[in-house]
């Protein structure tokens, strides 16, 4: 009935399988998915609605990473969204980033397509598509120019 979906290697979201979820969260570790450093337009998180766990990290870093409990698992109880963040060695920094990521996920969960996160991603996708189109057109013009020069030389 539920499906776990991974985003960016550190984010997990549990939603019913039949819902459409947007592909977001492609920003760097320091930015929100919208590319902004602020979260003023996002829904606020209440600490009473959160369940936090510190678990042992994994991945590259060897023994130092495997021994420390600096991986933060944050669950939003009303929606069931779970975020796992182990982007830095600092527990406090991971807690902060996990909350930022969870705030975006909760915003998208409740607002859907009206969320600022989704709107910003759609805008980025449009810009990327326009850039690709322009590159294709430029390449085509160069190809035509080359063919024209080849015909003139004959």
From TrEMBL:
InterPro entries tied to this protein: Mito_Transl_Release_Factor (IPR052405), Pep_chain_release_fac_I (IPR000352), Pep_chain_release_fac_I_sf (IPR045853)
GO CC term (a single one): mitochondrion
Coiled-coil boundaries: none
Comp. bias intervals (Basic and acidic residues): 119-128, 136-154
Prokaryotic-type class I peptide chain release factors domain span: 45-144
Subcellular localization(s) per the UniProt record: Mitochondrion
Major localization class: mitochondrion
GO molecular function: translation release factor activity
Renumbered residue ranges of the record's region Disordered: 119-154
Source species, domain of life: Eukaryota
Record keywords, A-Z: Mitochondrion, Transit peptide
Family that this chain belongs to: Belongs to the prokaryotic/mitochondrial release factor family.
Protein's name in the database: Prokaryotic-type class I peptide chain release factors domain-containing protein
Source organism of this protein record: Phrynocephalus forsythii
